[in-house]
Every structure is written in structure tokens, then in C-alpha cells.
Write a structure and sequence with these properties.
alpha/beta; two-stranded antiparallel sheet; 9 strands
Length: 274
């Protein structure tokens, strides 16, 4: 029956012949409409409201245009939390959760530690840290006012009170010798990188930096001034950039520089100490 759930499952199955994950994502989308898991599993002949039908039609249109499911759902899971996201910010990546875990293991002061994230995006890193360490004082900056709007939505959603958002180019606002830890997952893709073809729906400014390395150079230079003696900086980077990022930190005078990998065994993080 046209307008029934079964009708749309039939449509999804036809379309999934060209996209093996469409049917799985369609079921996930249906759950966001508060349709019960049992009805979805049975592919029931439930008659849908006009509003539900329109949402499903919009889903198919957006999905077939290649818009990521997280943007369609307006949410993304990160570090056991569900964040609001849209095309103003990058979709959080699972490997970035490892950077949050690494930060939480660092021997910072148990209370009053000042931690700065450079390039806050959706806020998933800073908010995850703030929720895990309510005694820390977190500051998060972004040059994109649109990204800060999304971060503010998540700040209110999670009722976080130990995180301040700042509109700034990197950390130019920071006072000398004031920060204990700087965390950053900056743009690190070269403008000519073929990977960009699969990322056309995400904000280019959050992905690309000249030569693929310039953002690390600018942040590291400013970080050396802003960090306290003994303060640390941790970067997430592309899996082929470990040596370049380590060299950047070395050139700026950082010491005790180490690298770590993601769950796939790819080089992903670099840590340095002032």
C-alpha cells in the first residue's frame, strides 16, 4: 500500500541493489522517527502519517545525493554521547575518541587544570573531556562562527559549565604561560588530496590546510608561547604525517615528543612537552 511502511521497505530494497548499506541505514533512520524496533523488524504494513512519509522521501533524496547519515539524522555518536551535528561541522571520527582517552590518562592536576582545544568544531572532544573531568577548566576556540554555533548547541544539550567557547584564529587569544594542555585535531588534508572527493558534504575549511602541514606549524608556534613550562600539546594527524608533525614540534622547541597509533595500527597522534 502506498504510504505504508512496507511500501517504503520495498523501495529501500530496490535502491539497495546499488548500495549495500542503504537498507541498514534506512532502518536506523526509521528508529529516529520513533517507530518501534519490533515494527521495523517485521517490516509492518503500518500506515504512515503524511509528515512521516515526507521525512522518508527526504531521507531517500538526501541519501542518494551522498549526504552522510549523521547529517541526515542531525546526530553523531562520540565517546558514548550523542552530539548534534550538521554540515557546519565535521562528523566526529571514531579514532578521535582515542585522543580523548589519551588526554584523560595524562598526569594533569586533578583540579583546576586549564585545557585548550584548538578547532572545536562540534565540541565533541572538549565536551567529552569536560564531562569526564568536571574539575578541569576547558577553553575551546574556532575561527568558524558557524562551528561555534553548533558547539554552543551541544554545550547546552549536555549542560556543561566548565567549558568556554572563543571565536579566534587558533590560540592567538591565549596569555603566555597560561595553559597546561593543548588538544587539536586541525585541518591536515592537502588541497590536492584525492580523499577530498569523498568528503564533499563536509566543511572544506575544517579539512584542508596549505601543504597539508601548515595548521600544525601555526598552532605549534603559538602553543610554545601559551603553554606553561612542562605543559603538553597533542595533535591528531593524517596517518602519513607522523614524521612531519614530530619535526614541526621539534623545530618549535618541544621535547619528549612521542607518537601513538589508532586501533588500525596507523600513526595518528603526536604528543610533545614544553
Amino acid at each position: 500500500m502506498s504510504g505504508s511502511l512496507k511500501f517504503y521497505f520495498t523501495k529501500a530494497r530496490k535502491l539497495s541493489s546499488h548500495n549495500s548499506v542503504l537498507l541498514r541505514d534506512f532502518k536506523f533512520f526509521l528508529s529516529s522517527l520513533d517507530i518501534s524496533a519490533t515494527i521495523i523488524a517485521l517490516e509492518d504494513d503500518l500506515l504512515l502519517s503524511a509528515k512521516e512519509q515526507q521525512k522518508i522521501e527526504d531521507f531517500f533524496e538526501d541519501y542518494l545525493q551522498g549526504i552522510p547519515l549523521d547529517y541526515i539524522l542531525k546526530e553523531s555518536s562520540f565517546f558514548n554521547h550523542t552530539f548534534f551535528v550538521d554540515s557546519r561541522v565535521l562528523i566526529p571520527r571514531p579514532e578521535t575518541e582515542l585522543m580523548v582517552e589519551a588526554v584523560l590518562k595524562l598526569p594533569l592536576r586533578s583540579a583546576g587544570a586549564i585545557v585548550l582545544e584548538v578547532g572545536v568544531g562540534s565540541g565533541c572532544i572538549s565536551i567529552s573531556l569536560a564531562l569526564s573531568r568536571p574539575s578541569w577548566k576547558l577553553i575551546a576556540s574556532d575561527i568558524s562562527s558557524e562551528a561555534l554555533e553548533v558547539a554552543q548547541i551541544n554545550l547546552k544539550k549536555f549542560k556543561v559549565f566548565n567549558l568556554q567557547l572563543i571565536h579566534s584564529n587558533w590560540l592567538s587569544f591565549a596569555k603566555p604561560d597560561s595553559i597546561e594542555l593543548i588538544v587539536s585535531n586541525p585541518p591536515y588534508i592537502h588541497p590536492d588530496d584525492d580523499h577530498l572527493k569523498g568528503l564533499i558534504h563536509e566543511p572544506i575549511s575544517a579539512l584542508v590546510t596549505p601543504n597539508g602541514i601548515d595548521s600544525f606549524k601555526e598552532i605549534a608556534k603559538q602553543a610554545m608561547l601559551a603553554l606553561k613550562v612542562g605543559g603538553r600539546i597533542i595533535f591528531e594527524h593524517g596517518h602519513t604525517q607522523k614524521d612531519q608533525v614530530m619535526a614541526v614540534l621539534r623545530e618549535e622547541g618541544f621535547r619528549n615528543i612521542t607518537a601513538d597509533q589508532d586501533l588500525q595500527g596507523l600513526n595518528r597522534f603526536v604528543l610533545g612537552e614544553k
